[in-house]
Amino acid sequence: EVQLVESGGGLVQPGRSLRLSCTASGFNFGGYAMSWVRQAPGKGLEWVGFIRNKASGGTTEYAASVKGRFTISRDDSKSIAYLQMNSLKTEDTAVYYCIRERWQMVYWGQGTLVTVSS
Amino acid sequence: DIQMTQSPSSLSASVGDRVTITCRASQAISNYLAWYQQKPGKVPKLLIYAASTLQSGVPSRFSGSGSGTDFTLTISSLQPEDVATYYCQNYNSAPITFGQGTRLAIK
Q1: Which residues of B are less than 8 Å from A106 in CB distance?
Q2: N or C: which end of chain B has fewer CB within 10 A?
């Protein structure tokens, strides 16, 4: 059974950093791209970015709203994907979902809430 | 970036009704279009991909059509459990973009 568990969310002040983790199980993690999508309270879905698998170069793509501030990485030996978030803004407040794959998003984690507030 | 515009933003229909939600892309995306259902307090669920391919396990009352810039999601006979917000998603290339959502309620 595919499982994705996000962790690392919480309350953080504007300008600070936070790192989210997505621990995967039930599939060959290294064979898949991993994505992050967020949802602000009461709002719609917003794509954050993805990281390709190593066979596809392990490269990343980001939304314009987070490019230069957020970094996605992966540790295939631990089956974990990371979202490093720097220079956080109040508008980054959202539930952050980890997803297996980059295009057709079948498997989602339950999400972790990030609140950016002073 | 490709903008995805859904209509309507919300709708209310009766059980058994045929419901149609439309999604328009700001430029052609071939059939790289998916539809998701998000029930209140739940994680989004993939319903349809490649514009018209039903994801495994999704009831056959859901269907999708379209290509290029104009797409539709149809529920042939609305059921109470279909109350949710529906999103279209462009995955032609990065950046991936979602429509703003359509909130579906029962009359």
Answers
A1: 46, 55
A2: C
Q: Does B68 touch chain A (CB under 8 A)?
A: no
CA distances from B18 to A75, B12, B61 (A): 46, 11, 9
Q: CB A108 to CB B44 under 8 A?
A: yes
In the numeric block, which tokens belong to residue A109? Answer: 């984690």
Rounded Cα distance, B51 and B70, in Å: 10
Yes or no, beta carbons of A110 and B43 under 8 Å apart: yes
Strand arrangement of the beta sheet that strand B70-75 belongs to: B4-7, B19-25, B70-75, B62-67
Q: Which residue of B has its CA nearest to A45?
A: B98
How far apart, in whole angstroms, are the C-alpha atoms of residue B94 and residue A33?
13
How far apart are alpha carbons A63 and A70 in whole angstroms?
9
pLDDT in tens, A21-33: 999 999 999 999 9
- Give the best residue of A47, A96, A101, A113 to mutate against chain B (max B CB count within 10 A): A47
The number of beta carbons lying within 10 Å of the beta carbon of residue B18 is 11
